[in-house]
Amino acid sequence: MQSIDTYGEGLERGDQSKNGFWGVLAQKAKEILEDEVNGKVVDETWQQQQQPPNSQTIHQTQLKASRHVAMATAAKAKLLLRELKTVKADLAFAKARCLQLEQQNKLLRDGDKGLNRADDDLIRLQLETLLGEKARLANENETYSRDNRFLREIVEYHQLTMQDVMYLHEGMEEVNELYPIHDARMMSMSTTHSSSSPLGNGKPIFPIPQQVVEQEDHNDKNTTSEEEAPPLSDHHHVN
User: Fold this and answer.
1) SS (HEC) of the chain
2) What pLDDT shows up at residue 4?
3) Contact assessment for residue 27 and residue 12, using Cβ atoms and an 8 Å cutoff
4) Domain ranges of the chain
């Protein structure tokens, strides 16, 4: 009986660290059974001390002790059987998981070796599509950059033209302030003189308004007509 107890204790100690909950439960059950057995043994020894020793009572005491030990051993065996079933279930689950992982590993190895032709063709097609899209985007980018450069040059040209127009307008305002309307004739004469000279074939720098020129021409015609007409007083005196 002692060898069975020691074997059960060894199994309980070994399984306690491995199985966790079931090991603790087996240890608690063992302690409870040992406490009951020890308490009954103490009571029987105390009764034996109070009563005179008898061979029949000694035999009964031994039978009771053997019965308690057998019951404790049976309880331990039941606990060990339950733990064994749990361990078997865990082992079966671990084997199934290992088999699944081995199959996945095999598939990954086959994929790395290039045995899966369908996946290789799909990957190749995707790469070709990506390369074609990359080339198309590069051409579009080049075209857009060229158009952007042309537009920038046009904008710069218009900015320079607007600056020239602003400078010309400011120059005309300054000329109008420096040379009033009654001096416009002198400016027109200077422009005609410069145009008649061999070096003055170009346009005048600051053009004179057309209305001012027409008014000055009209005034010149009136003055010349007055100078060419004979005086009336001399005509009457001759007659």
Assistant:
1) CHHHHHHHHHHHHHHHHHHCHHHHHHHHHHHHHHHHHHHHHHHHHHHHHHCCCCHHHHHHHHHHHHHHHHHHHHHHHHHHHHHHHHHHHHHHHHHHHHHHHHHHHHHHHHHHHCCCHHHHHHHHHHHHHHHHHHHHHHHHHHHHHHHHHHHHHHHHHHHHHHHHHHHHHHHHHHHHHHCCHHHHHHHHHHHHHHHHCCCCCCCCCCCCCHHHHHHHHHHHHHHHHHHHCCCHHHHHHHC
2) 42
3) yes
4) 2-86, 179-223
Show the tokens assigned to 223. 């003055």
* pTM, rounded to two decimals: 0.27
Q: For residue 135, what are its two tokens?
A: 């080339």
The model's pLDDT over 180-210, given as tens digits with 9 standing for 90+, comes to 554 555 555 555 544 444 444 444 444 444 5
In 47-74, which positions are buried (b, 16+ CB within 10 angstroms) versus exposed (e)? eeeeeeeeeeeeeebeeeeeebbeebbe
